[in-house]
């Protein structure tokens, strides 16, 4: 398959290098267009207020057959420019492998998932891959996530995704032999406790740090439950955010008959 690969950790982050290398070894035609620096948690932002630059990057750790380009924009910018300038007709946009999970409500913040969303908006199938690792982990098993990616992409080659749907995939940070399997899941609930921390600088001025500690509702069938229990979580995500039952409810309640004063 022709694969356009991107991420939000930067063009030379270990996850994207492992992903592109593994997919090239499987015989896919791969092109990388990725941010020139860390762009985590930028969501689905597109750059409209300044020019964007795209340049061929030194291949470095990538296989020689992989075309590698860096961009000074967001992950979504990278997908747009990649399809306009580098690989106009990819069969699949592949985003990742992200350093850290994208579970539950992380989807709304994630540059990794948003890049896959941009691929869907542009009419392509898309998958986002994340490794459920943390800074305290002694090892980061990107090779496990790349093996999962290769198998899922092979599956999709004969079982295409419905139009408008992407897959959000989270892989436990364990050796491949220790994975318990794959679960097709729904988006779970992940909330952040202590999201804003207040500090004072040496000049007495207040500043804030947004972070927080994730608290998951571990309901079976959700992505957070699957990842916590050693399964690869595969969540189909639909781009139409309309809540259709509310259309009938609001209409029946008379919302269309409101008088303006």
Q: Could you explain how this protein is built, in words?
A:
By secondary structure, the protein is of the alpha/beta class. It is 26% helix and 28% strand. The chain has six helices and 13 strands. It has helices at 14-25, 75-86, 111-121, 142-158, 223-228, 244-252; strands spanning 2-6, 29-35, 54-56, 67-71, 92-99, 125-132, 165-172, 182-184, 189-193, 196-200, 206-210, 213-217, 232-238. The strands form three sheets. A nine-stranded mixed sheet has the order 3-4-2-1-5-6-7-13-8. It has a two-stranded antiparallel sheet with strand order 9-12. Strands 10-11 form a two-stranded antiparallel ribbon. A hairpin with a 5-residue loop joins strand 10 and strand 11 (206-210). The radius of gyration is 20 Å and the shape is globular. The mean pLDDT is 93.
Q: Return the average pLDDT rounded to an integer.
A: 93
Strand order of the largest sheet: 3-4-2-1-5-6-7-13-8
Estimated share of beta-strand residues: 25-35%
Element pattern in H and E? EHEEEHEHEHEEEEEEHEH
Radius of gyration: 20 Å
Give the class from helix and strand content and strand pairing: alpha/beta
Features:
single chain; 261 residues; alpha/beta; nine-stranded mixed β-sheet; two-stranded antiparallel ribbon; 6 helices; 13 strands; globular
Topology, please?
Elements: E1 2-6, H1 14-25, E2 29-35, E3 54-56, E4 67-71, H2 75-86, E5 92-99, H3 111-121, E6 125-132, H4 142-158, E7 165-172, E8 182-184, E9 189-193, E10 196-200, E11 206-210, E12 213-217, H5 223-228, E13 232-238, H6 244-252
Parallel strand pairs: 1-2, 1-5, 2-4, 5-6, 6-7, 8-13
Antiparallel strand pairs: 3-4, 7-13, 9-12, 10-11
Helix pairs in contact: 1-4, 2-3
């Amino acid at each position: 398959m022709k694969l356009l690969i991107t991420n939000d950790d930067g063009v030379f982050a270990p996850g994207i290098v492992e992903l592109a290398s593994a997919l090239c070894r499987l015989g896919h035609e791969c092109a990388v267009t990725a941010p020139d620096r860390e762009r985590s948690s930028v969501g689905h932002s597109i750059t409209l207020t300044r020019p964007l630059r795209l340049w061929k990057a030194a291949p470095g750790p990538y296989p020689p057959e992989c075309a590698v380009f860096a961009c000074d924009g967001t992950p979504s910018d990278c997908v747009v420019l990649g399809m306009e300038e580098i690989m106009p007709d990819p069969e699949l946009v592949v985003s990742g492998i992200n350093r850290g999970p994208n579970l539950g409500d992380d989807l709304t913040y994630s540059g990794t998932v948003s890049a896959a969303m941009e691929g869907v908006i542009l009419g392509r199938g898309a998958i986002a891959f994340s490794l459920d690792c943390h800074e305290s982990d002694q090892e980061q098993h990107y090779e496990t996530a790349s093996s999962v990616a290769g198998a899922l992409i092979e599956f999709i080659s004969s079982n295409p995704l419905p139009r408008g749907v992407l897959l959000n995939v989270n892989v436990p940070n364990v050796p491949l032999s220790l994975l318990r399997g794959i679960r097709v899941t729904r988006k779970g609930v992940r909330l952040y406790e202590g999201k804003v921390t207040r500090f004072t600088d040496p000049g007495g001025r207040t500043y804030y740090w947004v972070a927080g500690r994730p608290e998951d509702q571990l309901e079976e069938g959700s992505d957070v439950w699957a990842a916590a229990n050693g399964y690869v979580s595969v969540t189909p995500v639909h781009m139409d955010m309309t809540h259709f039952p509310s259309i009938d409810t609001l209409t029946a309640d008379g919302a269309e008959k409101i008088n303006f004063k």
